[in-house]
C-alpha cells in the first residue's frame, strides 16, 4: 500500500506541476498572439489535454483524501452499529466499478492503438495516449478504495446535516 | 423490416443536417416494409468527433459526417476536399467506388455517398485584405480562426492562427481575438458572423466533404432490397442536394452583398497560385499520411479521378 | 425501449448509486456503463456490447474533459487559492470591513458585487463559483458568518454568467434558435442586474431576520487618512487585477477563458510584490486548486456520457415530445417547458440541453405567440437555475469541494434554495412585464 501511495503522490505532483505550467503557457501564447506573433497553436491543444491528464493523475490521490464528493443521505440515517459495515460494502462497490472501468477502458485503449485512431486538433494526437491514462487512473483508484474496505477508516462519516 | 440507427454530426439548424433528415425521410417513405432508419440525434447523442469511430465499432449503423473528422484514419478523404470534380462525376468515373473500397478496408465502413457537394470555402475578414507582390492575399499579422481541415493552407499564407470551436467564433470576432475566418459560401448568415465579417475573398477553395458512412457488418446483415434502396436514394440525393446548394449559394451571396459585405477578387494569375497552394496543402497532407500508413498506390488513382490530372 | 422506461431506468440507476453513498463521479460512471451497454452496445453477445458501449463512454470522455471551455475552472480556483493562502484576501477584506463600517452582512454584499462582476465577465458559472468559493467562504466563516450567508450568494451569482454578456451560451442559443445574437445578449442585461439586486435585498432580509447569520462585530473606526491608505494599499491593487482581467477581455487581447490564466499570474505577481509569496503557501494553493479541479473534472467525465445516453436512448426527446404534445394555455405551456429544462438540467450539460430542446421549444414558442428573444431569456434563466438545482446541479458539487470541511450537501442545498427562489421570482416578473427583457433591445431599433 505504501508503494501505491507513493505512485499516487507522484502523479498528484505531476498534476499540480501541469496545472501551473498550463497557466503560464496560456498567458504566453495569448500574449504572443496579441503582439502579432504566431506562437504555437499546439499550446492550446496540450493545455486541453492537460485537463484530462490532470483529472486522471490526481483522482487516485483524491480518493485517499475523501475529496470526491458523495451524498450522505442514506448513510446518515443508518443505525450506528451497521453504518461502518455498510460504508465498507459501498467502498467495495466502488472498487468493482473501478475494475470494470479498468478492463473496458483498457480494451478501448488497445483498440485505438490497433486502428491507429487519432484525436485531430492542431495536431494528430494518437488516441491511445489519451485513453491509456484511464485504466491506470481507475486501477489506482480501486487500490485506494481498498483502504476504506480493509483499513481502519471508512469512507462515510454518517454525519449529513448534523452541523447546523 | 431492417432497422438502422443513425446519428448526424451537426446540429439541426444547419442546412446539411436538414438535407440528411430529408434524405432519411425519403428512404423511410420508399422503404416502407423493407427498411426503417431511426435517427437517434446529433452531437448531443454522440459527440461530433466521436461519431466516425462509433459507426466503425458498431455503436450506430449509419453516420452523416464530414470525412475530415476521420481524415487521419482514412487519408484518402482529402481527395474530396481538394477535388475538381462534382460528386456525380466522381460516381460516374469510378472515384466513388474507390472511395468506398478504401473506407471498407481501412475503417470497416461503407461510404455511401458525398452529399451537399459543390459547396466551397472562402476566407472572410473584418478588415480590408492586403495583397503581396504576386497578387495573392497576404495574411501576415492577420489573426485567423483555424481548424484542422485548412491548417496547413493557412500556415502557407503566413497567418497567425487561433484554434477554436465554431461556436466561439462569434465572440472572438466581436472582441477582435480573431479578425478573419474561413467558412463555406453558405451558412455565414445562419451563424450571424456577417455582423463582423465585411469582406470576402474570391476564389473559393476546397470542397465540403460531407458523406454518409455505414458500418460494414451492419450493412452486410441488411436484406439486398434494403441495401439497394439505401444506396440508390443516397446516390440520387448527391444530385438533388448539389442542385439545391447551388441555389443557396446564389441566394446567400445576394443577401450578403445586400447587407454590405464586399466580395473582393484576386487576379486570375493570383487566384491560380492561391488555389494551387490550398490544393497542394491537402494533397500533401494525404501523401504524408499515406506514406506512414501504406496505400500509396491510391494516391495517383485518386488524383486522376478527383483532380482530373 | 419506450422513452419513459429508458428515462426511468437511467435516472433510477444514477440516483440509486448516489443515494447509497457512491461518489457522484463513480455513480455516473456506473450508471453509464450499464446504460451504454444496453443502448450503445449494438448487436452481439453481452461482452461485445459491454466492450462497445463502455468503449464509447471512454471515447466520449476525451472531448468533454479536455476542452478549453473548462479552463476557467482550474485557473480561477488557483487564483482564489493564491489570494487566500498568501493572506492578500484577508488583507483586502479587513480593509473593506473598516471602510464599510458596521453594515451588517457586508461580506455577503461584497460577494454579490464580486460574483456579479466575475461571473458576468468570465462567462463561466463554474469558474466563478470556484473563485469566489475558495476566496470568500473561508474568510466569511472566519468572521463568524453562517454557512448559508457565504454559500448562497456565490451560488446565486455564479448563474449570472450566462445571462449578462459576454456569454458564450447566449450566443450559442441565439445561433441554434436563429435569433438576433445582439438582441438576446442585450435582453439579458436588465434581468441579470435585477437579479443581482434581488440577491442584495434577500441578504438584507436574511440579516434582519437573523442578525446572528452575519455577526456585526466591532471594527476600529478609521480616520479619513487611514481610509485613503487602506484603499490605496490594501484594496485597489487587488481590485486592479479584476479590472485588468476585464480590460483584457474588452480589448480583445484575450478570450474570457484565457483571461482567467492572466488573472492567476496577476495575483501571483501581486503576492510577490507584497512579499507574501512563500513556497509553502504556493504549494498549498496549488494543492487546493488541484483537489477541486480534479473532483469537478471527474464528475464532468461521468455526467457527459450520461447526457449522451439520455439523448441517444430517446429518453429526453421522448419527454420533450410528450410534454409539449398537449394543447394547453400558453402560460401553462411555458411553465411546462421551463419545468422540462429544470429536470433535464439536473442531469445534462447546458449545451446538450440546448441542442435537444431548441428545435422543439422555439417553433412551439413561436406558434404560441411568444416573443422569441423574451423566450430566449427565460430559457437562459432556466439553464442557470438548473445548474444549482438540488440534488445534482454541478455548481453545488463545486461548492462542496471548495467549502470548509464539515459543510454537508444539505447545508449547500439549504443555502441555494432562497437564491433559486429569486430567479423564479424574476421569471414571474418577466411573464407579467416582458419589457424587463425587451425594453433595452427595443432602443436599438
Ligand atoms: Na457573461
Ligand atoms: Na445541471
From TrEMBL, chain A:
Molecular functions per Gene Ontology: transmembrane transporter activity
Gene Ontology cellular-component terms listed: plasma membrane
Pfam families the UniProt entry points to: DctQ
UniProt keyword terms in alphabetical order: Cell inner membrane, Cell membrane, Membrane, Transmembrane, Transmembrane helix, Transport
Domain Tripartite ATP-independent periplasmic transporters DctQ component: 23-145
Keyword Electron transport among UniProt keywords: no
Record localization: Cell inner membrane; Cell membrane
TM annotation in the entry: 7-31, 43-64, 85-105, 125-143
Membrane topology: Multi-pass membrane protein
Highest taxon of the lineage: Bacteria
Role description: Part of the tripartite ATP-independent periplasmic (TRAP) transport system.
Family membership: Belongs to the TRAP transporter small permease family.
Assembly with partners or alone: The complex comprises the extracytoplasmic solute receptor protein and the two transmembrane proteins.
Name under which the protein is recorded: TRAP transporter small permease protein
Upper lineage: Bacteria, Pseudomonadati, Pseudomonadota, Alphaproteobacteria, Rhodospirillales
Automatic annotation (TrEMBL), chain C:
GO cellular component, one term: plasma membrane
TM annotation in the entry: 6-31, 70-89, 109-133, 154-177, 183-209, 230-254, 260-277, 289-311, 331-348, 355-375, 381-399, 411-433
Keywords from the named record: Cell inner membrane, Cell membrane, Membrane, Transmembrane, Transmembrane helix, Transport
Recorded GO MF terms: transmembrane transporter activity
Recorded topology in the membrane: Multi-pass membrane protein
Main location: membrane
Localization (cell): Cell inner membrane
Keyword Lyase part of the UniProt annotation: no
Residue span(s) of domain TRAP C4-dicarboxylate transport system permease DctM subunit: 12-434
Family: Belongs to the TRAP transporter large permease family.
Function: Part of the tripartite ATP-independent periplasmic (TRAP) transport system.
Complexes and interactors: The complex comprises the extracytoplasmic solute receptor protein and the two transmembrane proteins.
Name listed for the protein in its UniProt record: TRAP transporter large permease protein
Source organism per UniProt: Denitrobaculum tricleocarpae
Species lineage: Bacteria, Pseudomonadati, Pseudomonadota, Alphaproteobacteria, Rhodospirillales
Amino acid at each position: 500500500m505504501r508503494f501505491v501511495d507513493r505512485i499516487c503522490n507522484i502523479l498528484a505532483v505531476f498534476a499540480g506541476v501541469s496545472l501551473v505550467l498550463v497557466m503560464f503557457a496560456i498567458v504566453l501564447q495569448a500574449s504572443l498572439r496579441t503582439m502579432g506573433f504566431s506562437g504555437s497553436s499546439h499550446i492550446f491543444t496540450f493545455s486541453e489535454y492537460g485537463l484530462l491528464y490532470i483529472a486522471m493523475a490526481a483522482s487516485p490521490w483524491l480518493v485517499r483524501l475523501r475529496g470526491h464528493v458523495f451524498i450522505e443521505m442514506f448513510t446518515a440515517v443508518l443505525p450506528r452499529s451497521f453504518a461502518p459495515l455498510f460504508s465498507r460494502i459501498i467502498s467495495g462497490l466502488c472498487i468493482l466499478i473501478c475494475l470494470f472501468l479498468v478492463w473496458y477502458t483498457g480494451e478501448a485503449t488497445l483498440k485505438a492503438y490497433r486502428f491507429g485512431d487519432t484525436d485531430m486538433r492542431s495536431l494528430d494526437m494518437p488516441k491511445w495516449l489519451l485513453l491509456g491514462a484511464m485504466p491506470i487512473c481507475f486501477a489506482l483508484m480501486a487500490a485506494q478504495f481498498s483502504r476504506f474496505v480493509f483499513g481502519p477508516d471508512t469512507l462515510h462519516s454518517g454525519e449529513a446535516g448534523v452541523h447546523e | 423490416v431492417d432497422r438502422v440507427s443513425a446519428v448526424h454530426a451537426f446540429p439541426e439548424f444547419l442546412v446539411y443536417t436538414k438535407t440528411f433528415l430529408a434524405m432519411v425521410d425519403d428512404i423511410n417513405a420508399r422503404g416502407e416494409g423493407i427498411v426503417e432508419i431511426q435517427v437517434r440525434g446529433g452531437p448531443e447523442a454522440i459527440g461530433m468527433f466521436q461519431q466516425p469511430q462509433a459507426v466503425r465499432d458498431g455503436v450506430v449503423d449509419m453516420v452523416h459526417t464530414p470525412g475530415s473528422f476521420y481524415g487521419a484514419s482514412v487519408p484518402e478523404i482529402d481527395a474530396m476536399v481538394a477535388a475538381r470534380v462534382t460528386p456525380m462525376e466522381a460516381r460516374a468515373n469510378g472515384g466513388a467506388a474507390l472511395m468506398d473500397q478504401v473506407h471498407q478496408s481501412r475503417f470497416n465502413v461503407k461510404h455511401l455517398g458525398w452529399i451537399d457537394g459543390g459547396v466551397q470555402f472562402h476566407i472572410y475578414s473584418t478588415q480590408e485584405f492586403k495583397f503581396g507582390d504576386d497578387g495573392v492575399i497576404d495574411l501576415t499579422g492577420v489573426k485567423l480562426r483555424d481548424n484542422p481541415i485548412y491548417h496547413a493552407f493557412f500556415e502557407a499564407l503566413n497567418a497567425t492562427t487561433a484554434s477554436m470551436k465554431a461556436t466561439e467564433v462569434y465572440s472572438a470576432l466581436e472582441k477582435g481575438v480573431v479578425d478573419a475566418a474561413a467558412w463555406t459560401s453558405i451558412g455565414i448568415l445562419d451563424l450571424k458572423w456577417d455582423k463582423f465579417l465585411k469582406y470576402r475573398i474570391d476564389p473559393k477553395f476546397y470542397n465540403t466533404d460531407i458523406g454518409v458512412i455505414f458500418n460494414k457488418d451492419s450493412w452486410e446483415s441488411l436484406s439486398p432490397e434494403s441495401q439497394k434502396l439505401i444506396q440508390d436514394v443516397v446516390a440520387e440525393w448527391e444530385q438533388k442536394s448539389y442542385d439545391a446548394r447551388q441555389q443557396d449559394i446564389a441566394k446567400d451571396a445576394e443577401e450578403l452583398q445586400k447587407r454590405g459585405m464586399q466580395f473582393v477578387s484576386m487576379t486570375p494569375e493570383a487566384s491560380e497560385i492561391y488555389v494551387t497552394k490550398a490544393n497542394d496543402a491537402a494533397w500533401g497532407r494525404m501523401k504524408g499520411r499515406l506514406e506512414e500508413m501504406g496505400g500509396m498506390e491510391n494516391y495517383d488513382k485518386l488524383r486522376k479521378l478527383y483532380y482530373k490530372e | 425501449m419506450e422513452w419513459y422506461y429508458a428515462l426511468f431506468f437511467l435516472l433510477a440507476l444514477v440516483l440509486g448509486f448516489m443515494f447509497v453513498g457512491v461518489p457522484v463521479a463513480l455513480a455516473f460512471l456506473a450508471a453509464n456503463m450499464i446504460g451504454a451497454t444496453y443502448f450503445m452496445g449494438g448487436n452481439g453477445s453481452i461482452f461485445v456490447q459491454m466492450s462497445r458501449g463502455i468503449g464509447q463512454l471512454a471515447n466520449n470522455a476525451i472531448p468533454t474533459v479536455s476542452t478549453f471551455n473548462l479552463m476557467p475552472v482550474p485557473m480561477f480556483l488557483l487564483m482564489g487559492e493564491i489570494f487566500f493562502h498568501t493572506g492578500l484576501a484577508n488583507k483586502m477584506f479587513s480593509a473593506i470591513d473598516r471602510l464599510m463600517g458596521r453594515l451588517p452582512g457586508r461580506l455577503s454584499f461584497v460577494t454579490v458585487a464580486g460574483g456579479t462582476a466575475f461571473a458576468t465577465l468570465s462567462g463561466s458559472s463554474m469558474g466563478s463559483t470556484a473563485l469566489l468559493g475558495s476566496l470568500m467562504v473561508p474568510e466569511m466563516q472566519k468572521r463568524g458568518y453562517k454557512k448559508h450567508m457565504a454559500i448562497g450568494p456565490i451560488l446565486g451569482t455564479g448563474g449570472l454568467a450566462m445571462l449578462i454578456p459576454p456569454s458564450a451560451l447566449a450566443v450559442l442559443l441565439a445561433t441554434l434558435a436563429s435569433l438576433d445574437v445582439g438582441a438576446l445578449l442585450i435582453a439579458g442585461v436588465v434581468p441579470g442586474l435585477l437579479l443581482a439586486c434581488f440577491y442584495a435585498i434577500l441578504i438584507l432580509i436574511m440579516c434582519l431576520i437573523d442578525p446572528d447569520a452575519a455577526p456585526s462585530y466591532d471594527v476600529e473606526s478609521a480616520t479619513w487618512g487611514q481610509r485613503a491608505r487602506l484603499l490605496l494599499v490594501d484594496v485597489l491593487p487587488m481590485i486592479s487585477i479584476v479590472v485588468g482581467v476585464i480590460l483584457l477581455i474588452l480589448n480583445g487581447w484575450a478570450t474570457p477563458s484565457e483571461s482567467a490564466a492572466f488573472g492567476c499570474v496577476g495575483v501571483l505577481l501581486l503576492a510577490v510584490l507584497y512579499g507574501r509569496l512563500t513556497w509553502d503557501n504556493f504549494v498549498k494553493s496549488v494543492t487546493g486548486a488541484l483537489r477541486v479541479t480534479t473532483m469537478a473534472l471527474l464528475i464532468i467525465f461521468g455526467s457527459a456520457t450520461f447526457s449522451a445516453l439520455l439523448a441517444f436512448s430517446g429518453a429526453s426527446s421522448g419527454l420533450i415530445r410528450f410534454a409539449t404534445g398537449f394543447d394547453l394555455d400558453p402560460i401553462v405551456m411555458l411553465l411546462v417547458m421551463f419545468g422540462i429544462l429544470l429536470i433535464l438540467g439536473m442531469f445534462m450539460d447546458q449545451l446538450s440541453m440546448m441542442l435537444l430542446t431548441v428545435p422543439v421549444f422555439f417553433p412551439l414558442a413561436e406558434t404560441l405567440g411568444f416573443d422569441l428573444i423574451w423566450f430566449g431569456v427565460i430559457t437562459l434563466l432556466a439553464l442557470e437555475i438548473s445548474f444549482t438545482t438540488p440534488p445534482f446541479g454541478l455548481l453545488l458539487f463545486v461548492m462542496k469541494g471548495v467549502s470548509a470541511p464539515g459543510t454537508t450537501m444539505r447545508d449547500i442545498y439549504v443555502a441555494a434554495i432562497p437564491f433559486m427562489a429569486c430567479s423564479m421570482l424574476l421569471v414571474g416578473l418577466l411573464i407579467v412585464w416582458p419589457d424587463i427583457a425587451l425594453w433595452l433591445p427595443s432602443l436599438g431599433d
